[in-house]
Amino acid sequence: MSLNKTITIKDVATKANVSVGTVSRVLNNAKNINPDNIKRVNEAVKDLGYRKCSAAQLLGSKKNHSKIRTGNIGFVFAELTSVWQGHPHLEHYSKAVEKACREHGCHAIIEWADNTKQGELPTCVLEGKVDGVIVMGTNVDYSKYGNLPLVGISKTSAEIQCVVPDDRSAGRTVAEYLWNKGHRRISYMCNSSSNMMFISRFHGYKEFLEQMQSFDPDLVKMYNEHIQFDQPQTSFPDMTLPLKELLDLPESKRPTAIITANDWTAAGLYAAFRQQEVSVAEQISVVGFDNLEALCCSLFPALTSYAIPFKQVAYTAAQKLFAQLENPPDENISSTELIKGKIVERESVRTIKS
Amino acid sequence: MSLNKTITIKDVATKANVSVGTVSRVLNNAKNINPDNIKRVNEAVKDLGYRKCSAAQLLGSKKNHSKIRTGNIGFVFAELTSVWQGHPHLEHYSKAVEKACREHGCHAIIEWADNTKQGELPTCVLEGKVDGVIVMGTNVDYSKYGNLPLVGISKTSAEIQCVVPDDRSAGRTVAEYLWNKGHRRISYMCNSSSNMMFISRFHGYKEFLEQMQSFDPDLVKMYNEHIQFDQPQTSFPDMTLPLKELLDLPESKRPTAIITANDWTAAGLYAAFRQQEVSVAEQISVVGFDNLEALCCSLFPALTSYAIPFKQVAYTAAQKLFAQLENPPDENISSTELIKGKIVERESVRTIKS
DNA sequence: CTGAAAGCGCTTACAG
DNA sequence: CTGAAAGCGCTTACAG
To answer: In this complex, do B70 and A123 lie within 8 Å of one another by their Cβ atoms?
Structure first.
């Protein structure tokens, strides 16, 4: 008999012999309702198998300032195509966003750069599928997004809310860590001098060593390898040359520790070490960044690395986005939040006794 | 100036100097519209930064019985909460679905069981966010979904389209593989006799051995450990007892190879072996199912395993769902497609020369 | 080809 | 404590 007709709040009201207003109030747990009505409404809901239509609910509550329309937020990898999907730190990002969404009764739409035309907005935005976005990318033009609620997680900007890893502090922390282990000649190596994160880490490192009056430009090896962002790296960078330059330094200047801009570079360095028959930790200590578990542990000796707080960054970003969506506009001032991580100690650093 | 007021279709209409109806028609690419109006509407949309409210759109189109076109498909883990997120084979599923979506210019909404009330539909369905769903779960009641386009990927049903791994063939293939390596007494071990996949694998195994007139019930060790689906397993099953029963068999009946219902069980078996000082491969060969790369390779000797074709299953399922959405209804007959995987050889199987 | 208008299912002042 | 009613932003017959 069921004509498959949708059961609405009206049907419930009729059956419970109250007005739709009352049903709505019961459904939303309002205060001060006749217990008798509550009971009858709940019974009617059950009998009828009523389920609310959230589209209508959203619409109805539009009168207040909530900007939630779709109940979806977008997580966009603005510069990376989906060939990167599955890379550990990126997974951390998207999982943290999905978690926050679950907690807010929303859904996440993950979008890679695959279908985005040069200079265009991601399609989930163009198609109006999301109420706001979290954008990852170091070169994003945020202004493009107009007044869409937005949080950036890798490029900072004074215009919008950002949550980014504190790379400068990370660089500083690692340098200080090595210093405290007795190292005095600490090198920094980097294979992409145009990478903002790598630069920030370098600045933190430099800052600390300058403070200790131990910064030595000869120990900095930054060169610029062209990194393809539309293709994940499949091989470690070749660090033979920069390593050789360091080893060719006079004994008294040669570093006792090397900080690499990330774990991948460290892995490349390990290979160069093997070639030069230098043993890690014993002869030269190494610390990386990212703390890619599988990579760090597969190296021998296992690589000590600074864990960039990917999850926290994305989770915090999502919280801020929801705040933008749920709070009155004037409560949302643009701001940049820097999130610190921590060093995960493994076996690649030796303590130097003085 | 802008009081941050939401820009609606009405604003666009005013600016473009047409009615809201016309704006709506332009936005939905209706036929027969004055090109001039199209142009003005599009300009107004752009100038105003208008974005449609999909909640309102859904509500508005409620009147007809046509299918809602959100451009999203749902991938629902009907019985698993998000604590399972990140497990390798599940990731394969969702990634393959996302890939198919990208190819169709759509988006995927992944939903875990966290927010689903007992017996209810997933919220992405309740909220009308998706045009169809792919459902994973061995106990799903598909009828609940009404006439929503649907593909099942773990429980088969005559009513709907399904794409599932061919577990029976997998069991058969592994038994045959061992047979061809010279094994004649092949055991099957399983720690959850209520798991449909495990049963199917068993049936395939049994079928082959019966055909070879070598099926021996004493070599089958199936017991039923209660498996919590709301919590991923954190420890391997304890296989000490069933192994002991096998080892206590008279020499002439003792198996030379054991098939375990999955890789986790194999890992538990390895532990039991160590305790009993039996060496894998050398004394007893082992083959698992799932081919969990990290697990198989971390065992010693590395575990040979049947790779369940997770990716293909999910990808094929997504294709079928899109076919349902894009083709006339009568072209979509319910059917079940079984997908075969293959054995990935490592070091846990010895060849027996006769 | 287009406008005016009804209606989708809810929420929420407002007036008792 | 509750009902009547306006309104959320769209879609879609309907009548030109």
So the answer is: no
